[in-house]
Amino acid sequence: MSIKVTPFKRWSHFRCFLMTLILFFFFSILFSTLYLTLKRFRNTLELSNNTPVIFRKGTIKSNVALVSFYTSDYHDIGSISTINKLFYAYKHGYDMIVYQKPFYKKSIWIKPAWNKIPMVEAQLENYEWIIWIDSDAIIMRHELTLEDIIEISKKADWRKKDHEIDLIISYDINAGINSGIFFMRNTEWSRNVLKQVQTSWKYIPYSLHWYAEQTPFAMEIKYGLDEHVRVTYKRVLNAYLKDYSEGTTYIMHLAGCPKQKPKYCSGIMHEFYERWQRNNVTSVSDRELLRRAEKDFETLEKQ
């Protein structure tokens, strides 16, 4: 007895075949696009030769260095921030390292903020501690030293970890931590963190993410739970405008503001720069240091 195939069954079989074919082509295109995207992304990660300008108060190299990226894209905010950091470095005898060119080739596949990772990595082996400060941040309390921040971070981190400190950073409501300002010690753990954030395939989707390197950085240090990390108060280390507290805030950070409202943010930065001068540039030696910082910045701009 033969089985009769109805038109309805024929249509059902054909429809299944058609759907399978469509899905096959869809996923083929999807994976091909993903592969080409990753390949193009990797091609942009060609680190260029990038020699920074190094400033120091005397002739003796310090074991601590501030590292920053000066760019005119931030209007006069970058210049104010750089002069402020030069003054701080001279006051405490730290080296000040300023990059003027990005490491990564300009590309739609990666945000400029990623440049801080190779910049810190390139200098970490030369110092005991690296202090990274974004070019839209200003140090408000120049009496505080690295040692002071280490002690503050020990008190702030409620988990009371026993491991020696390799990274000091602050929390952020958006990405978990804020990598705009951090203190990193020259250890194997630190070097591995920077390497993983920069090269691990699992972080590639974040190349165009709004928070750029910040989320991969947070994931790599377990959002501050790693025993090598101390997470300190945001209002101290990395205060936004709403977090600022006179006499408490160490670094004021206008994160993302310069690109959104350049004139408004420039006005705020000038206001805090004048406030910083009133509170920190109070002696003859301070004024001499400030003049030197301003002069060195003028030299930097001409290069």
TrEMBL record:
Source domain of life: Eukaryota
An individual GO BP term: protein N-linked glycosylation
Keyword Hydrolase: no
Membrane-crossing segments per the record: 12-38
Keywords tagged on the record: Glycosyltransferase, Membrane, Transferase, Transmembrane, Transmembrane helix
GO molecular function list: glycosyltransferase activity
GO cellular component terms, semicolon-separated: Golgi membrane
Membership in a protein family: Belongs to the glycosyltransferase 34 family.
Name of the protein described by the UniProt record: Galactosyl transferase GMA12/MNN10 family protein
Native organism: Naegleria lovaniensis
